[in-house]
Amino acid sequence: MKIGELSRATGTNIETIRYYERIGLLPAPDRTAANYRSYGDAHRSRLSFVRHSRDLGFTIEEIRSLLDLSDDPARDCGEADRIATAHLEQVEAKIAQLTLLRDELARIVGRCRGGVAADCRVIEALGDHRHCESAH
Amino acid sequence: MKIGELSRATGTNIETIRYYERIGLLPAPDRTAANYRSYGDAHRSRLSFVRHSRDLGFTIEEIRSLLDLSDDPARDCGEADRIATAHLEQVEAKIAQLTLLRDELARIVGRCRGGVAADCRVIEALGDHRHCESAH
DNA sequence: TATGCACCCTGTAGCAACTACAGGGTCAAG
DNA sequence: CTTGACCCTGTAGTTGCTACAGGGTGCATA
């Protein structure tokens, strides 16, 4: 299949597919006589793996490691689990941080009573960290 | 005060302070005879405002608008409230998205039972979106 | 046959918000 | 007089794409 078809099949931007090839995340496919990229099923499933992992928030480097693992079926699974577990912990940390931040923002927004900027509680709160109830 | 002192006073990297000046977020300060930047209290509180807003996740452009507002005390406060409210909504959306993602990751990680990569449930789940329970 | 249109190619530059040098100058203490 | 901490400018790197510019290919239609 040509790149546009692969793009539709995986929901990946064409430019992104070429980018993945450039950074070595996807192998360079064969070319047609007209120098068009020609993909097979192996490419499609590899790209799906990459997209899915990206959707789950894995970095390109993490995905590289995961792909290395899946390319070598005899290797130990522990490494994949370590990567995924570490990533899960990062996501949980991010959620916790954003939750604090949301609470702080909600408090700031809730204080606006209209009027002019000189009296604006939003601007005042942004200027002075001491108005905050939690660290962030 | 010199840039190092301002850096310590506000918890901002020196390079970041210079970067903010370059993009026009902070006004260029006076210089000493040795061409060192020399800051006053107004700079310090403006930078605190910026840092605090960045910590709360506002973009540089949002902060630019908020600073414009606070520089003009006669202007209406509604704009500040609009910016903050929109940002709060974005943070809430991000939390919701990360929460879905965390649940999916937790399910994937929980399936690892050791062994070799060929049998790895983590790698299998990443390759095939149909294993997922929710959209992400 | 011409021409329009969708599709493909390469290469480079842009985005956000910094961060990290390289290569130099300044200044006070010992 | 030298050591070390500090400061300066300018440029390039980071992450993960995305957006051109400027060109070639392939097929259907007038």
Describe this structure in words.
The structure is a homodimer of 136-residue chains. Chain A has 136 residues and is an all-alpha fold. Helices cover 62% and strands 3% of the residues of chain A. Chain A is built from six helices and two strands. A two-stranded antiparallel sheet of chain A has the order 1-2. In chain A, strand 1 and strand 2 form a beta hairpin. The mean pLDDT of chain A is 90. At the A-B interface, helix 3, helix 4, helix 5 and helix 6 of A face helix 3, helix 4, helix 5 and helix 6 of B. Chain A binds a DNA duplex (30 and 30 nucleotides) through helix 2.
Keywords summarizing the entry:
2 strands; two-stranded antiparallel ribbon; homodimer; 136 residues; mainly alpha; 6 helices; DNA-binding; elongated
Q: What fraction of the residues of chain A are assigned to beta strands by DSSP? A: under 5%
Give the strand tally of chain A: 2
User: pLDDT average of chain A, as an integer?
Assistant: 90
Oligomer: homodimer
Q: Biggest interface pair, residues each?
A: A-B, 52 and 52 residues
Low-confidence sequence ranges of chain A: none
Q: Taking strands numbered 1, 2, ... along the chain, how are they ordered across the largest sheet of chain A?
A: 1-2
Count of helices of chain A? 6
Shape of chain A from CA axes?
elongated
**Percentage of residues assigned to helices of chain A:** 55-70%
Query: What Rg of chain A do the Cα atoms give?
Result: 23 Å
CA distance, first residue to last residue of chain A:
49 Å
